[in-house]
Design brief:
This protein is an alpha+beta fold and 313 residues long. The chain has two domains: 142 residues, 3-Layer(aba) Sandwich (Aminopeptidase), CATH 3.40.630; 134 residues, Aminopeptidase (3-Layer(aba) Sandwich), CATH 3.40.630.30.
Protein backbone atom coordinates (compact mmCIF):
# COMPACT_ATOMS: atom_id res chain seq x y z
CA UNK A 1 0.00 0.00 0.00
CA UNK A 2 1.37 3.39 -0.97
CA UNK A 3 0.75 6.44 1.22
CA UNK A 4 0.71 10.21 1.13
CA UNK A 5 1.58 12.48 4.04
CA UNK A 6 0.16 15.86 2.95
CA UNK A 7 -1.80 16.96 4.86
CA UNK A 8 -3.00 13.60 6.22
CA UNK A 9 -1.59 10.14 5.83
CA UNK A 10 -3.82 8.40 3.29
CA UNK A 11 -3.42 4.87 1.94
CA UNK A 12 -4.11 3.89 -1.66
CA UNK A 13 -5.05 0.45 -2.94
CA UNK A 14 -6.85 -1.25 -5.80
CA UNK A 15 -10.42 -2.47 -5.26
CA UNK A 16 -10.66 -6.21 -4.90
CA UNK A 17 -14.18 -7.59 -5.05
CA UNK A 18 -17.77 -7.50 -3.87
CA UNK A 19 -17.04 -5.94 -0.48
CA UNK A 20 -15.41 -2.97 -2.18
CA UNK A 21 -18.44 -2.50 -4.42
CA UNK A 22 -20.52 -1.97 -1.28
CA UNK A 23 -17.81 0.19 0.28
CA UNK A 24 -17.82 2.59 -2.68
CA UNK A 25 -21.62 2.54 -2.87
CA UNK A 26 -21.94 3.65 0.76
CA UNK A 27 -19.25 6.26 0.17
CA UNK A 28 -21.32 7.74 -2.69
CA UNK A 29 -24.43 7.85 -0.49
CA UNK A 30 -22.49 9.58 2.28
CA UNK A 31 -20.75 12.04 -0.05
CA UNK A 32 -23.72 13.14 -2.21
CA UNK A 33 -25.09 15.68 0.25
CA UNK A 34 -21.74 17.26 1.17
CA UNK A 35 -21.40 19.46 -1.93
CA UNK A 36 -23.38 20.43 -5.03
CA UNK A 37 -25.62 17.65 -6.43
CA UNK A 38 -23.68 15.41 -8.77
CA UNK A 39 -20.22 16.13 -7.38
CA UNK A 40 -20.07 12.36 -6.93
CA UNK A 41 -22.05 9.75 -8.85
CA UNK A 42 -25.59 8.88 -7.90
CA UNK A 43 -25.92 5.28 -6.72
CA UNK A 44 -28.06 4.28 -9.72
CA UNK A 45 -25.13 5.00 -12.03
CA UNK A 46 -22.78 3.00 -9.82
CA UNK A 47 -25.22 0.11 -9.54
CA UNK A 48 -25.79 0.12 -13.28
CA UNK A 49 -22.09 0.02 -14.07
CA UNK A 50 -21.79 -3.09 -11.92
CA UNK A 51 -25.02 -4.97 -12.58
CA UNK A 52 -25.80 -4.32 -16.26
CA UNK A 53 -24.46 -7.12 -18.42
CA UNK A 54 -24.28 -4.72 -21.39
CA UNK A 55 -21.27 -3.23 -19.57
CA UNK A 56 -19.62 -6.58 -18.96
CA UNK A 57 -16.26 -5.11 -19.98
CA UNK A 58 -16.36 -2.76 -17.00
CA UNK A 59 -17.71 -5.55 -14.84
CA UNK A 60 -14.82 -7.79 -15.80
CA UNK A 61 -12.35 -5.07 -14.79
CA UNK A 62 -14.15 -4.67 -11.47
CA UNK A 63 -14.12 -8.38 -10.71
CA UNK A 64 -10.46 -8.49 -11.66
CA UNK A 65 -9.76 -5.65 -9.26
CA UNK A 66 -7.72 -3.70 -11.81
CA UNK A 67 -9.79 -0.62 -12.59
CA UNK A 68 -10.93 1.00 -9.34
CA UNK A 69 -8.48 2.90 -7.15
CA UNK A 70 -9.39 3.58 -3.52
CA UNK A 71 -7.95 6.12 -1.05
CA UNK A 72 -8.50 5.49 2.67
CA UNK A 73 -7.59 6.92 6.05
CA UNK A 74 -5.56 4.78 8.48
CA UNK A 75 -8.85 3.93 10.19
CA UNK A 76 -10.20 2.50 6.94
CA UNK A 77 -12.53 5.35 6.01
CA UNK A 78 -12.90 5.68 2.24
CA UNK A 79 -12.32 9.29 1.15
CA UNK A 80 -11.77 8.94 -2.59
CA UNK A 81 -12.24 6.56 -5.52
CA UNK A 82 -11.28 6.61 -9.19
CA UNK A 83 -12.88 4.33 -11.78
CA UNK A 84 -13.86 4.17 -15.44
CA UNK A 85 -17.35 3.97 -16.90
CA UNK A 86 -16.09 3.07 -20.35
CA UNK A 87 -12.61 2.60 -21.80
CA UNK A 88 -10.37 5.63 -21.46
CA UNK A 89 -12.44 7.43 -18.82
CA UNK A 90 -11.57 8.31 -15.23
CA UNK A 91 -14.25 9.43 -12.79
CA UNK A 92 -12.87 11.11 -9.68
CA UNK A 93 -15.06 10.68 -6.59
CA UNK A 94 -13.72 12.46 -3.51
CA UNK A 95 -14.96 13.95 -0.26
CA UNK A 96 -14.84 17.77 -0.20
CA UNK A 97 -12.29 17.84 2.64
CA UNK A 98 -9.89 15.59 0.72
CA UNK A 99 -9.72 17.30 -2.63
CA UNK A 100 -5.98 17.75 -2.19
CA UNK A 101 -5.82 14.07 -3.18
CA UNK A 102 -7.08 14.72 -6.70
CA UNK A 103 -3.65 15.15 -8.24
CA UNK A 104 -2.50 11.78 -6.91
CA UNK A 105 -5.80 10.26 -8.03
CA UNK A 106 -5.29 11.67 -11.51
CA UNK A 107 -1.72 10.38 -11.64
CA UNK A 108 -2.99 6.90 -10.80
CA UNK A 109 -5.70 7.14 -13.48
CA UNK A 110 -3.19 8.23 -16.12
CA UNK A 111 -1.11 5.15 -15.39
CA UNK A 112 -3.95 2.62 -15.08
CA UNK A 113 -6.99 3.70 -17.12
CA UNK A 114 -6.13 5.16 -20.57
CA UNK A 115 -7.48 3.53 -23.71
CA UNK A 116 -5.06 2.33 -26.38
CA UNK A 117 -6.05 3.76 -29.76
CA UNK A 118 -5.29 2.61 -33.30
CA UNK A 119 -2.71 5.37 -33.74
CA UNK A 120 -0.63 3.90 -30.93
CA UNK A 121 -1.48 6.67 -28.47
CA UNK A 122 -3.13 6.33 -25.07
CA UNK A 123 -5.80 8.83 -24.10
CA UNK A 124 -7.73 9.59 -20.93
CA UNK A 125 -10.93 11.59 -20.44
CA UNK A 126 -11.94 13.21 -17.13
CA UNK A 127 -15.16 15.03 -16.26
CA UNK A 128 -15.40 18.38 -14.45
CA UNK A 129 -18.41 20.56 -13.68
CA UNK A 130 -18.07 24.07 -15.07
CA UNK A 131 -18.31 25.55 -11.55
CA UNK A 132 -15.40 23.41 -10.30
CA UNK A 133 -12.51 25.83 -10.71
CA UNK A 134 -10.23 23.66 -8.57
CA UNK A 135 -10.49 20.59 -10.80
CA UNK A 136 -10.38 22.61 -13.99
CA UNK A 137 -7.15 24.29 -12.83
CA UNK A 138 -5.68 20.85 -12.08
CA UNK A 139 -6.67 19.47 -15.48
CA UNK A 140 -5.29 22.47 -17.36
CA UNK A 141 -2.04 22.33 -15.41
CA UNK A 142 -1.64 18.65 -16.28
CA UNK A 143 -2.20 19.25 -19.99
CA UNK A 144 -5.87 18.34 -20.43
CA UNK A 145 -7.99 20.13 -23.03
CA UNK A 146 -11.72 20.75 -22.79
CA UNK A 147 -13.63 18.74 -25.41
CA UNK A 148 -16.98 19.43 -27.06
CA UNK A 149 -18.64 16.69 -24.99
CA UNK A 150 -20.32 17.19 -21.66
CA UNK A 151 -23.32 16.63 -19.42
CA UNK A 152 -26.18 18.62 -17.94
CA UNK A 153 -27.87 17.93 -14.62
CA UNK A 154 -31.51 19.04 -14.81
CA UNK A 155 -33.90 19.54 -11.90
CA UNK A 156 -37.71 19.46 -11.84
CA UNK A 157 -38.89 23.09 -11.64
CA UNK A 158 -42.71 22.90 -11.75
CA UNK A 159 -45.33 22.28 -9.05
CA UNK A 160 -45.54 18.64 -7.97
CA UNK A 161 -48.37 16.77 -9.74
CA UNK A 162 -51.13 16.10 -7.22
CA UNK A 163 -52.99 13.22 -8.88
CA UNK A 164 -51.88 10.08 -10.78
CA UNK A 165 -51.48 10.57 -14.51
CA UNK A 166 -53.95 9.15 -17.02
CA UNK A 167 -52.45 7.48 -20.10
CA UNK A 168 -54.10 7.63 -23.55
CA UNK A 169 -56.86 5.15 -24.30
CA UNK A 170 -55.57 1.61 -24.76
CA UNK A 171 -52.30 2.26 -22.89
CA UNK A 172 -51.75 1.28 -19.28
CA UNK A 173 -49.18 1.88 -16.59
CA UNK A 174 -47.28 -1.37 -16.18
CA UNK A 175 -45.30 -2.42 -13.11
CA UNK A 176 -42.12 -4.23 -14.13
CA UNK A 177 -41.80 -7.68 -12.54
CA UNK A 178 -38.14 -8.25 -11.55
CA UNK A 179 -36.64 -11.14 -13.48
CA UNK A 180 -39.90 -11.94 -15.27
CA UNK A 181 -38.87 -13.34 -18.69
CA UNK A 182 -41.54 -11.59 -20.75
CA UNK A 183 -41.11 -8.25 -18.98
CA UNK A 184 -37.34 -8.41 -19.34
CA UNK A 185 -37.56 -9.26 -23.05
CA UNK A 186 -39.92 -6.34 -23.70
CA UNK A 187 -37.83 -3.97 -21.61
CA UNK A 188 -34.64 -4.87 -23.50
CA UNK A 189 -36.48 -4.59 -26.83
CA UNK A 190 -37.63 -1.08 -25.93
CA UNK A 191 -34.10 0.04 -24.99
CA UNK A 192 -32.66 -1.35 -28.22
CA UNK A 193 -35.42 0.22 -30.33
CA UNK A 194 -35.32 3.61 -28.62
CA UNK A 195 -31.54 4.01 -28.54
CA UNK A 196 -30.87 2.10 -31.78
CA UNK A 197 -28.70 -0.49 -30.09
CA UNK A 198 -28.40 -4.26 -30.08
CA UNK A 199 -26.55 -4.76 -26.78
CA UNK A 200 -29.47 -4.94 -24.35
CA UNK A 201 -30.73 -8.40 -23.42
CA UNK A 202 -33.35 -9.92 -21.16
CA UNK A 203 -30.50 -11.38 -19.06
CA UNK A 204 -29.09 -7.89 -18.47
CA UNK A 205 -32.48 -6.53 -17.41
CA UNK A 206 -33.12 -9.51 -15.14
CA UNK A 207 -29.71 -9.10 -13.51
CA UNK A 208 -30.29 -5.44 -12.74
CA UNK A 209 -33.90 -5.76 -11.59
CA UNK A 210 -33.15 -8.75 -9.36
CA UNK A 211 -29.84 -7.63 -7.86
CA UNK A 212 -29.42 -3.85 -7.99
CA UNK A 213 -30.17 -2.32 -4.57
CA UNK A 214 -31.39 0.90 -6.20
CA UNK A 215 -34.09 -0.80 -8.29
CA UNK A 216 -37.66 -0.03 -7.20
CA UNK A 217 -40.42 -1.61 -9.28
CA UNK A 218 -42.89 1.09 -8.24
CA UNK A 219 -40.63 3.73 -9.76
CA UNK A 220 -39.85 1.85 -12.99
CA UNK A 221 -42.71 3.45 -14.90
CA UNK A 222 -43.68 1.78 -18.17
CA UNK A 223 -46.43 2.59 -20.64
CA UNK A 224 -47.66 -0.70 -22.11
CA UNK A 225 -49.30 -0.59 -25.54
CA UNK A 226 -52.57 -2.37 -26.37
CA UNK A 227 -50.59 -5.33 -27.76
CA UNK A 228 -48.59 -5.65 -24.52
CA UNK A 229 -45.33 -4.26 -25.89
CA UNK A 230 -43.54 -1.56 -23.94
CA UNK A 231 -44.01 1.81 -25.64
CA UNK A 232 -42.29 4.19 -23.20
CA UNK A 233 -40.19 4.07 -20.06
CA UNK A 234 -39.19 6.44 -17.28
CA UNK A 235 -37.04 4.49 -14.85
CA UNK A 236 -36.27 6.14 -11.55
CA UNK A 237 -34.51 5.71 -8.22
CA UNK A 238 -35.25 7.32 -4.88
CA UNK A 239 -32.25 7.96 -2.65
CA UNK A 240 -33.86 8.08 0.80
CA UNK A 241 -30.59 9.02 2.51
CA UNK A 242 -30.28 12.21 0.47
CA UNK A 243 -33.97 12.65 -0.39
CA UNK A 244 -33.88 12.99 -4.15
CA UNK A 245 -35.25 11.12 -7.14
CA UNK A 246 -33.32 10.59 -10.36
CA UNK A 247 -34.52 9.36 -13.75
CA UNK A 248 -32.51 6.80 -15.75
CA UNK A 249 -33.27 5.49 -18.32
CA UNK A 250 -35.93 7.55 -20.11
CA UNK A 251 -37.01 6.55 -23.62
CA UNK A 252 -39.86 5.70 -26.00
CA UNK A 253 -40.24 3.36 -28.94
CA UNK A 254 -39.61 4.70 -32.43
CA UNK A 255 -42.73 2.83 -33.57
CA UNK A 256 -46.05 4.73 -33.93
CA UNK A 257 -47.42 5.75 -30.50
CA UNK A 258 -49.30 8.62 -28.89
CA UNK A 259 -47.22 11.74 -28.30
CA UNK A 260 -46.40 12.67 -24.74
CA UNK A 261 -46.19 9.19 -23.19
CA UNK A 262 -42.72 9.70 -21.71
CA UNK A 263 -43.61 13.11 -20.31
CA UNK A 264 -46.63 11.63 -18.55
CA UNK A 265 -44.47 8.90 -17.03
CA UNK A 266 -41.96 11.45 -15.77
CA UNK A 267 -44.71 13.51 -14.16
CA UNK A 268 -45.95 10.39 -12.41
CA UNK A 269 -42.39 9.58 -11.31
CA UNK A 270 -41.98 13.04 -9.80
CA UNK A 271 -45.31 12.63 -7.97
CA UNK A 272 -44.30 9.26 -6.55
CA UNK A 273 -40.79 10.31 -5.54
CA UNK A 274 -42.06 13.43 -3.81
CA UNK A 275 -44.64 11.33 -1.96
CA UNK A 276 -41.76 9.19 -0.66
CA UNK A 277 -40.03 12.28 0.71
CA UNK A 278 -37.88 13.56 -2.16
CA UNK A 279 -36.96 17.24 -2.03
CA UNK A 280 -35.79 17.33 -5.66
CA UNK A 281 -35.96 15.21 -8.80
CA UNK A 282 -33.18 15.15 -11.38
CA UNK A 283 -32.35 13.85 -14.83
CA UNK A 284 -29.00 13.93 -16.59
CA UNK A 285 -28.34 14.30 -20.29
CA UNK A 286 -25.49 14.98 -22.69
CA UNK A 287 -24.62 18.10 -24.66
CA UNK A 288 -26.39 18.53 -27.98
CA UNK A 289 -28.90 15.73 -27.47
CA UNK A 290 -32.48 16.19 -28.78
CA UNK A 291 -33.63 15.02 -25.33
CA UNK A 292 -32.59 18.40 -23.92
CA UNK A 293 -35.50 20.12 -25.64
CA UNK A 294 -37.87 17.46 -24.37
CA UNK A 295 -36.69 17.69 -20.75
CA UNK A 296 -36.94 21.47 -20.84
CA UNK A 297 -40.50 21.29 -22.14
CA UNK A 298 -41.50 18.71 -19.52
CA UNK A 299 -40.23 20.90 -16.68
CA UNK A 300 -36.59 19.99 -16.03
CA UNK A 301 -34.34 23.05 -16.07
CA UNK A 302 -30.54 22.91 -16.22
CA UNK A 303 -29.03 23.23 -12.75
CA UNK A 304 -25.41 22.76 -13.76
CA UNK A 305 -23.30 21.69 -16.70
CA UNK A 306 -19.88 20.15 -17.10
CA UNK A 307 -17.41 19.09 -19.75
CA UNK A 308 -15.10 16.20 -20.56
CA UNK A 309 -11.40 17.02 -20.60
CA UNK A 310 -8.99 14.82 -22.55
CA UNK A 311 -5.25 14.21 -22.69
CA UNK A 312 -2.83 11.95 -24.54
CA UNK A 313 -0.77 10.28 -21.82
Amino acid sequence: MSTSSTPERIGQRVAGGEADFWLVRQFLLDAWGLAAPGHVWDVRRWDGAYHHRAQSGWDAHWRGGQAVGLWETPAGRLVGAVHPESAGEAWLQVLPGYRWLEEAMLEWAEAELPSDLADGQRRLSVFAWDYDAQRIELLERRGYTRTAGGEHLRRWSLPVPSVPVALPAGYRLHTLRPGHPEDCERYAALLNNAFQRTCHTAEEVANFTCHSPSFNAELELIAAAPDGSFAALAGMIYDSANRYGLFEPVCATRDPRPLGLTGLLMREGVRRAMALGAQHCYVGTGYGMPANRFYHAVGFKVQQSGSYWAKTV
